[in-house]
Amino acid sequence: MPRRIITSPKVLTPKRAFSQGVRVGHTLYVAGQLPIDLDGNVVGARDIRVQTRQVLDNVRAIVEAAGGTLRDVIKTTVYLTDIADHGAMNEVYARFFVSDFPARTTVQVAALAPALVGEGHPFLIEIDAVAILDGGA
Questions:
Q1: Which of 34, 77, 79 is nearest to 55 (CA)?
Q2: Count of C-beta atoms within a 10 Å radius of residue 26
Q3: How far apart are CA 89 and CA 86, in angstroms?
Q4: Sign (positive or negative) of CA dihedral 59, 87, 40, 31
Q5: DSSP code of 120?
Q6: One CATH from 3.40.50.300, 3.40.50.150, 3.30.1330.40, 3.30.470.20 for 3-132
């Protein structure tokens, strides 16, 4: 089955060997999104709520570029550098996914993409997603 690379003009295009999203049939795979705005700035240093909002705005923009909405997201994985941020992250997450929640895995990790900004980087969260589009479930 052919695959189609999905890119949103609302999300910074990676300069690395990966795509923002890949659509195969009705399935969209959204690459892990970091709290980076369109200008390449890391937002919300040490503020998990601000970072979560930026990450989910990025996920939404990529899903929309593929022709879907966040209601089409069926699975997310949330990577936190501090599991103590789970509650605050979840408050923001619940504003984006308000019903028929996607399946979700949340894990604590030691670091997120240090090669992008060097050691001591300010990333607190990364989220990837899978969506089923066009009634393909």
A1: 34
A2: 15
A3: 5
A4: negative
A5: T
A6: 3.30.1330.40
Radius of gyration of the chain (CA): 14
CB-side exposure of 113: number of CA atoms within 13 Å?
19
pTM, entire model: 0.92
Residue type, 114: P
* Sign of CA pseudo-dihedral 60, 26, 67, 7: positive
Question: How much is the pLDDT for 15?
Answer: 78
Q: How far apart are CA 104 and CA 129, in angstroms?
A: 9
Please state the φ and ψ torsions of residue 123, each to the nearest 5 degrees: -70, 125
Q: Mean pLDDT, consecutive 10-residue segments, the chain of 137 residues?
A: 94 86 97 93 93 98 98 98 98 95 97 62 92 75
